[in-house]
């Protein structure tokens, strides 16, 4: 179930405050994007000319799943980086 972004414009400071229904978070991340780039927020502040089509709400369960996937991807990347550093480098001499 997709929930609409809640938008409130602050006329004094000329910005948008966006949020989702309780228990949901805002994200601009989509399936197919690099999971290491995932971020979510309860509230976000945006410029007046923001393109809201990039934002959507995710449930608490989806957010937890994405954060777990992100942590796993970051750990795997770090482990691979460490393995590469541990391997002795070879230099070919002609």
Overview of the structural elements:
- It is a single chain.
- With 94 residues, this protein is an alpha+beta fold.
- A 3-stranded antiparallel beta sheet has the order 1-2-4, with no helix packed on it.
- It is elongated.
- The protein has one domain.
Strand/helix succession: EEEEEH
Stretches where pLDDT falls below 50 for ≥5 residues?
none
**Into which percent range does the helicity of residues fall?**
25-40%
Question: Number of helical segments?
Answer: 1
Mean pLDDT: 92
How many β-strand stretches?
A: 5
Question: What is the molecular shape?
Answer: elongated
Described by its quaternary structure, the protein is single chain
Strand order of the largest sheet: 1-2-4
Rg, nearest Å: 20 Å
Strand residue content: 15-25%
**Largest sheet features:** 3 strands, antiparallel
First-last Cα distance:
64 Å
> How many domain regions?
1
The structural class is alpha+beta
Q: What topology does this entry show?
A:
Blueprint: E1 6-10, E2 15-19, E3 24-27, E4 43-47, E5 56-59, H1 60-86
Antiparallel strand pairs: 1-2, 2-4, 3-5
Question: Nutshell version of this structure?
Answer:
29% of the residues lie in helices and 24% in strands. With 94 residues, the chain is an alpha+beta fold. The strands form 2 sheets. A 3-stranded antiparallel sheet has the order 1-2-4, with no helix packed on it. A two-stranded antiparallel ribbon has the order 3-5.
